[in-house]
Design goal:
The chain is mostly helical and about 650 residues long. The protein folds into 4 domains: about 100 residues; about 450 residues, no CATH class; about 40 residues; about 45 residues. Helix content is about 75%, strand content about 5%. The chain is built from 29 helices and 4 strands. The strands form 2 sheets. It has a two-stranded antiparallel sheet. A two-stranded antiparallel ribbon has the order 3-4. Helix 4 packs parallel to helix 16 and helix 15 packs antiparallel against helix 19. The radius of gyration is 32 Å and the shape is globular. The N and C termini lie far apart (about 95 Å).
C-alpha cells in the first residue's frame, strides 16, 4: 500500500516528463490516475490507523552505511502521517484534474503534469520519512520542484527572477536545517526519529560549546530547525519569495500554498514536537515570530491589486497562525488549522484561476468589476472561500482559527497575549482585504476592457468539479473533524505528537472572558463592514482620506510590503553585486588570477619572443652558443660521469664551431 502511494506519483512524473512527447494527452490521464490511486490508498491507510490505533514502521533496506552512520529507507505511518497523506493526495488530485483543462492550450502540458506529480512524490517522501536524512531528501525535492514549476513559463523574465528568488531564500532555511541534522547526529549518534526523540528528555539541561559559547543542546537544535521551517513556511524575514511565486501557473500556486512546500515547515515543527517541548525559550520565540508574521502579511494584503498576490499574503498570514499555535504547544490545533486551511486556500486559488481563465488572463482587480452576473458560479465559490478564510461562523476557518486565539488568551502570560492581540488584528485585516477582493471583482462597476467583459464565461466541467468539492469541504470539514482533531480526550494522535500535559489548556479556553472570546468575530464582521462602506457606498471617502501625509505614508508602507524587498535589495543585494564586481571580478578574477595565471604567462612569453625577433640573428646565435657552452662547463664541474661527457661532447663541438 505504501509503495503504491509513493511510486504512483513517480510513475506519473515519468509518464509526463520523460515520455510526455510520445504520450501527449495520455500523459495527463496517467498522472491524474496515479495521484487518484495514491489518494485511495491513503484512505485505506487512514482507516487502518484509525481502527487499529497503531503505528506502522516499514524498513525497506539500507541506504547509507559509513562507519557508525547507518541510514535506512525507513518509513513511518502514524496518525500525523496519514492526515498529511490525505490532505496532500486529495488536493493534488483536484489540482491535476483542474490543470488538464486550465493548461489545455499549453504545448508543454505533459511536462507540467509530470512536474506536479514529481512535486507530490517528494512531499510524500518528506511526510513518510522516519529519519532526518530521508526527510531532508523530500525537503530538497519540493524545493527543486517549486523552482521548476514557478519557472515553468521560462521565457518570462519575471518567472525566472521569481524562481531564482524562491530557490535562494529557501537555501538559507535549508542550510540551517542541514546544520541541525549534523548537530543531531553528532549528539545522538543517529538520525532515526525513534531514538532521538526518546533520548531528548535526557539532554534538556546539557550544554555544549559552539564557537566558544555554551548553549543548551536542545535550544540550539530547535532554533536551527525552526529557521529551516521559516524558509519553507515563509515566516517574516524569509517570506519574500512567496508572493513572487505567483508568477507560475495558478495550479502551481494552489498546490504550493495548500498542500505542499509551505506546509513542510509546519510539519517539521509538529514532527519534532518531542524536541521543542524541552526548549521553552525557543517556543516563545516561535510564538513571537508567528504572531508578527500573521499581522504583517494580513496588513500587507490590504491594498494589493493582484488577485493572486492578495491570496498569497493571506497564506503567509494563516501560516503565522499555525506557527504561533506550535509556539503555544498546541500542535494538534495547528495541524487542525493546516487541514482546514488546505481546503479553503486551494479553493481560493483555483477560483482565482477560474476568473483569470474566464477573463483572458487578467489578474489586476482594478481592471475587473461587474462580473457577478457574468460569472455567478465563480462568485459563489470565491464567496465561500473568503468566508471560510475570515472565520465566518460554522465554516472551516471559524473552528480552527478562533480556537487558536482563544487558547492563546487563556495561557495568560505576556507572549500569549502578544499572540492574541496581533492575531486579532490580523483577523480584521483579513476580512477587509477578502471583502475588498469580492467587491473589486464582482460587485463594483465594470472597469475592464469591453471586449473582455463581453467574452467572459464560466469555466468548463473539469474546472467546476474541483471547485465544487473544495467549496463543500470548506463549509463542512471544520465541523465534521473538530472533535476528531482537537476534541477533549481524543485518542487518535497517540504517540505521533508530543502533547505536553502541562500545556493542556483547551478546557480553560472555554471559560475566558466573553469579550475576548467574541472579539475575533466582531473584528471580522467590522472588517467586512468597513470594506463594504468604503468600496461599495462611499468610495470617495477612501480617496479623501489619502490626502493627508500620514495616511499616504501608511498606505505606501503597506503597498511596498513593509519595505522588506527594498531593504534586502539595497543592504544585501546591491552590496553583494558591488563586491562581486569590484573585488571578486576585477581584483581577483581579472587581476590576481590572470596576472599569475596562464593568460599572463602566454602574453609574457609572446612579448619576449617579439623582442627577440627584433635582435640581429648573429647576436642571437652568439648568445645561444654562449648559453650552451656555459651549461657544458657547469655539468663538467658538477658531474664526473663519463656518460655525461660523451652525451654533451657533440653539442660542445657544434656550439664551438658556431661561436667561432
Amino acid at each position: 500500500m505504501l509503495a503504491l502511494i509513493l511510486f504512483a506519483p513517480f510513475l506519473g512524473f515519468l509518464s509526463g516528463s520523460v515520455f510526455g512527447f510520445r504520450l501527449g494527452f495520455g500523459a495527463c490521464l496517467i498522472t491524474t490516475s496515479s495521484i487518484l490511486c495514491a489518494f485511495f490508498s491513503s484512505l485505506i491507510l487512514f482507516y487502518k490507523v484509525l481502527v487499529s490505533n497503531v503505528i506502522f514502521k516499514i524498513n525497506i533496506g539500507s541506504w547509507i552505511t559509513l562507519n557508525l552512520l547507518q541510514v535506512d529507507w525507513f518509513f513511518c505511518i502514524d496518525s500525523l502521517t496519514v492526515i498529511m497523506l490525505l490532505v496532500v493526495t486529495f488536493i493534488s488530485t483536484l489540482v491535476h484534474v483542474y490543470s488538464t483543462e486550465y493548461m489545455a492550450h499549453d504545448p508543454h502540458l505533459p511536462r507540467f503534469m509530470g512536474y506536479l506529480s514529481f512535486f507530490t512524490f517528494f512531499m510524500l517522501i518528506l511526510i513518510t520519512a522516519n529519519n532526518f536524512l530521508q526527510l531532508f531528501l523530500g525537503w530538497e525535492g519540493v524545493g527543486l520542484c517549486s523552482y521548476l514549476l514557478i519557472n515553468f513559463w521560462f521565457t518570462r523574465i519575471q518567472a525566472n527572477k521569481a524562481a531564482i528568488k524562491a530557490m535562494l531564500i529557501n537555501r538559507i532555511g535549508d542550510f540551517f536545517l542541514l546544520f541541525a541534522i549534523f548537530c543531531i547526529y553528532n549528539i545522538f549518534g543517529t538520525l532515526n526519529y525513534d531514538i532521538t526523540f526518546s533520548l531528548a528528555p535526557f539532554f534538556k539541561k546539557i550544554y555544549f560549546n559552539f564557537l566558544g559559547t555554551y548553549f543548551l543542546i536542545l535550544n540550539f537544535i530547535c532554533l536551527l530547525l525552526f529557521i529551516g521551517a521559516m524558509g519553507k513556511s515563509a515566516q517574516i524575514g524569509l517570506h519574500v519569495w512567496l508572493p513572487d511565486a505567483m508568477e507560475g501557473p495558478t495550479p502551481v500556486s494552489a498546490l504550493i500554498h495548500a498542500a505542499t512546500m509551505v506546509t513542510a515547515g509546519i510539519f517539521l515543527i509538529i514532527r519534532c514536537s518531542f524536541f521543542f517541548e524541552f526548549a521553552p525559550l525557543i517556543l516563545e520565540f516561535i510564538a513571537y515570530i508567528g504572531s508578527l508574521t500573521t499581522f504583517f502579511a494580513a496588513s500587507t494584503g490590504l491594498f494589493q491589486n493582484d488577485v493572486k498576490k492578495t491570496i498569497a499574503y493571506s497564506t503567509c498570514s494563516q501560516l503565522g497562525y499555525m506557527i504561533f499555535a506550535c509556539g503555544l504547544s498546541i500542535y494538534d490545533v495547528a495541524l487542525f488549522h493546516l487541514s482546514n486551511h488546505a481546503f479553503f486556500k486551494a479553493l481560493l486559488f483555483l477560483a482565482a484561476g477560474s476568473i483569470i481563465h474566464s477573463t483572458f488572463n487578467e489578474q489586476d482587480i482594478r481592471k475587473l468589476g461587474g462580473l457577478k452576473t457574468l460569472l455567478p458560479f465563480s462568485y459563489s465559490i470565491l464567496l465561500v472561500g473568503s468566508l471560510a478564510l475570515i472565520g465566518f461562523p460554522f465554516l472551516a476557518g471559524f473552528y480552527s482559527k478562533d480556537l487558536i486565539l482563544e487558547i492563546a488568551f487563556s495561557k495568560q502570560n505576556f507572549f500569549s497575549y502578544f499572540c492574541y492581540f496581533f492575531g486579532s488584528g490580523a483577523v480584521f485585516c483579513t476580512s477587509f482585504y477578502s471583502t475588498r477582493l469580492l467587491f473589486m471583482i464582482f460587485l463594483s462597476e465594470p472597469n475592464g476592457n469591453k471586449l473582455i467583459l463581453l467574452k467572459a464565461h464560466e469555466s468548463s466541467f473539469l474546472i467546476g468539479v474541483p471547485l465544487f468539492l473544495l467549496a463543500l469541504l470548506s463549509i463542512t470539514v471544520g465541523f465534521l473533524s473538530k472533535d476528531f482533531f482537537v476534541g477533549l480526550g481524543t485518542p487518535f494522535w497517540g504517540n505521533s505528537i508530543f502533547l505536553n500535559p502541562n500545556a493542556f489548556i483547551k478546557a480553560d479556553s472555554e471559560f475566558i472572558n466573553f469579550f475576548y472570546k467574541i472579539l475575533p468575530l466582531v473584528l471580522s464582521l467590522l472588517g467586512t463592514f468597513a470594506a463594504s462602506i468604503l468600496y461599495l457606498y462611499n468610495l470617495n471617502l477612501f480617496f479623501k482620506s489619502n490626502q493627508s501625509k500620514f495616511s499616504l505614508f501608511i498606505i505606501n508602507f503597506l503597498i511596498k510590503k513593509w519595505y522588506f524587498d527594498k531593504f534586502y535589495n539595497q543592504i544585501f543585494g546591491l552590496k553583494i553585486l558591488d563586491f562581486s564586481y569590484t573585488f571578486s571580478y576585477k581584483d581577483i578574477d581579472r587581476g590576481i588570477l590572470e596576472f599569475f595565471g596562464a593568460l599572463n604567462l602566454v602574453k609574457t612569453i609572446e612579448q619576449y619572443f617579439i623582442k627577440i625577433k627584433q635582435i640581429q640573428p648573429a647576436f642571437f646565435i652568439q648568445m645561444l652558443s654562449s648559453i650552451l657552452i656555459l651549461i657544458f662547463y657547469v655539468c663538467m664541474l658538477i658531474g664526473n660521469s663519463i656518460a655525461i661527457y660523451k652525451f654533451l661532447m657533440p653539442f660542445f663541438i657544434l656550439t664551438s664551431i658556431i661561436f667561432i
